[in-house]
What does this fold into?
Amino acid sequence: MSAKISPALQFLIKAAASASLVYFLFRPQDLGALLAQMWAVDPFYLGLAAVVYALVCIPSAVRWTIVVAAMGHRFAFRKALQIVLIGYFFNLTLISSIGGDSVRMWEAHRAGLPTEVAVKSVIIERLLQAIAHLLLVLIGIPFLFYRQTGTSIEVIAVFILATSVMGIAGILLLDRLPLAFQQFRLVKLVIGLSGDIRGILATPRRAVSTVALGLINQIGTLAVVSLLALGLHLPISFLDCLIVVPVATLAMALPISIAGWGVRESAFVFGFGLLLLPAQDALALSALFGILTMAVRLPGALVWLLTSRARGSNPH
It folds into this structure.
């Protein structure tokens, strides 16, 4: 019998990974100069970035209601938006986006969705977001080739994209596997998703709207990083962000850190370093982005408390 790692130990392992990466990256830097650089950010661009980032939740909520409708149920936009904000908050406190998505599933069930629909709709919404994410990575790769001619970099970029595409394609085709493969427990857990996702993508209106909303999400994040770069007076264009940020956020989704800390900084230093941005500038941008993420998503805690209180005062 294999030993199961407790959630507390998993959290400690991820926290240690984040702390180690942050220490390794920040240790060679002049922390005083780094903090001064972040503190000197232009408040206009910082405020504008905060507004744009706060609005990113809207396409996510709309996409989720479309998915639930495709599964034969109705989910009000207002309720979906509340739960998305709650999930954003728990992404800060739990392990990567997996923790926040688990909370979203539970809150959606408590809001009236059947358990299976609550679970599947969140997973499907995430996968549709991933498809849009990969489209943006695909758009950025030719620009990476133009800016960088190193064969190793090109191989890494293509490998990341190809692996992600094959993973999503595999999920879409799980229910077409031979029956012998469908007996595995993990396959059984997600096999029902294949038909549901294909059903959404087979309907042009739903396919276009869900993928377009995903692209709006991603472009919003690119705009946030670009605005922060402007506020820090860094020589980074929106096109540079298109090359680096989608791959960085893809790496942040891996359940190996707390809220992406350490992984994001590593990706920014490496990615923007390819575009000749000094490591300190990349770290300042990444840390400011991380702090802004916390500030924008903390109000989700208030939404959670208010909805829990309202549910408690009106249990029926």
In short: The mean pLDDT is 82. The chain has one domain: 42-298. Residues 7 and 124 are 24 Å apart (CA to CA).
